[in-house]
Amino acid sequence: MIELQGLTKRYGEKLAVDGLTCTVRPGIVTGFLGPNGAGKSTTMRMMLDLDRPTHGTVLIDGQHYRQLKDPLRTVGALLDAKAMHGGRSAHNHLLCLAQSNGIPKARVREVLDTVGLASVAGKRSKGFSLGMGQRLGIAGALLGDPQILMFDEPVNGLDPEGIHWIRNLMKNLAAQGRTVFVSSHLMSEMALTADHLIVIGQGRLLADTSMADFIKQNSRSYVRLRSPEVERLLDVLAGAGVTAVTTEDGHLEVDGTEAAELGELAARHRLVLHELSPQQASLEEAFMQLTAESVEYHAHTAPPGAEAVGTAAGAEAVGAAAPPGGGAAPPGGGWGAGWQKKKGA
Ligand SMILES: Nc1ncnc2c1ncn2[C@@H]1O[C@H](COP(=O)(O)OP(=O)(O)OP(=O)(O)O)[C@@H](O)[C@H]1O
């Protein structure tokens, strides 16, 4: 278990982490989300005593990190996959870690097998691809067989097979009763992996809730209906006191009434339905809705120097994607193009 109490970090003028109080519990995967610069890495560094809090505390199983007798056997972390001696082979890198932490040598071979690097164990890590470097970093985190695991952007650079592998690895580690804390900007992946979410924005706690509740609380859920007898359906709905909104493409959208109830109502009136589907927003939509106010870095929709003819054309020109399903768009820009600091932009 990891407990944060009023955790705060100031770098000069910048309040990077602002009074975070939350608990990361064992037995589940906890996702750590926040826009760029929200303070995720700083928080994780403070958890590992790599950065000193300005105020507040972090307790790892009830102790400060520096009080832990066998830190690597208690907490395994992947923070920066590039932070290793590139001249050493993967095997020697892990061996050094093992020897300096009293971990049996045999464990090196085991974790190399687990992460799929056994065949390149003798190769120097500076020749590794981004994904191989991530796997080696994950091997380092697993080396001490710790009960607590922290991964900062673990899927960065991994191929689809690798992403699938780390997802299952994290779920299995949690199922064994371990504490798994993971940050990622890949919302679709996070939605498949995490059971619980801690969301921060500009260093402050925005949400600490289950995945299902987070999506429910931060997005709209509704039922979509389509019928060849749309006018009669509207009358029937109105007669039952149900408000429906007609969309441009002729669908009806109904808030606040279950799909089953709507289906039964239609059946009672012998109405043909071509669609009756509950719609739940994605994690990405819910995340953007919640964090819209605390996004510090915004992308321009148009390439530098080019005046966009219209918003849509400008967005298309740089391949920026609007949030799916009409979720909250970032103020003043799309997503994915060259990041610009808001204050300077
Ligand atoms: N060593 C440092 N010195 C000064 N400012 C720092 C330092 N480390 C982080 N910051 C600032 O603290 C804020 C939080 O940074 P941090 O890297 O923790 O955010 P993050 O949520 O991990 O971001 P990202 O998603 O982009 O990785 C940022 O404004 C960053 O510029």
UniProtKB/TrEMBL annotation:
Family affiliation: Belongs to the ABC transporter superfamily.
Keywords in alphabetical order: ATP-binding, Nucleotide-binding, Transport
PANTHER family (alphabetical): ABC TRANSPORTER, ATP-BINDING PROTEIN (PTHR43335:SF4)
Compositionally biased residues, Gly residues: 324-337
Highest taxon in the source lineage: Bacteria
SMART domains (UniProt xref): AAA
GO molecular function: ATP binding; ATP hydrolysis activity
UniProt source species: Streptosporangium nondiastaticum
Keyword Acetylation: no
Domain ABC transporter: 2-227
UniProt cross-references to Pfam families, sorted A to Z: ABC_tran (PF00005)
Top-level taxonomy: Bacteria, Bacillati, Actinomycetota, Actinomycetes, Streptosporangiales
Stretches the record annotates as Disordered: 320-345
The name this protein goes by in its record: Export ABC transporter ATP-binding protein
